[in-house]
Design goal:
Blueprint lengths: L1 H9 L4 H24 L10 H23 L6 H33 L1
Helix pairs in contact: 1-2, 2-3, 3-4
């Protein structure tokens, strides 16, 4: 929450907006924890690529929403905010899906 406040202050937000953005931090953490109830961590190694990709896209969307809320200023256009959100979601989920795929591939080669 401190990092959220510092980032908001850095971007020149008012104190009320900084407080609102700080309130989003625990919501993000709870949402991430809730997502893990549907995709338990102990099953990550046995999960198929499609199911893991679903988890990674949802998890990346949560993180992208949080990042977009924290760094967006009041003057930003809707197009800019959408582009930032989608871009962050795609980059993070694609990277995590590729990492999962690579781990699965190397695990199969070892077995």
């Amino acid at each position: 929450m401190l990092i959220t406040g510092i980032a908001s202050w850095f971007f020149g937000d008012t104190s009320a907006v900084i407080f609102q953005k700080i309130l989003v931090a625990p919501i993000f953490l709870l949402a991430s924890k809730g997502l893990r109830t549907y995709f338990p961590g102990h099953l990550d190694d046995t999960r198929g690529l499609a199911t893991q990709a679903e988890f990674e896209v949802l998890n990346a969307a949560l993180l992208a929403a949080f990042i977009t809320i924290v760094v967006t200023t009041g003057e930003a256009s809707l197009e800019r905010v959408l582009l930032d959100f989608v871009g962050v979601t795609v980059v993070i989920s694609a990277a995590n899906i590729l990492i999962f795929w690579y781990r699965q591939k190397t695990r199969r080669q070892v077995d």
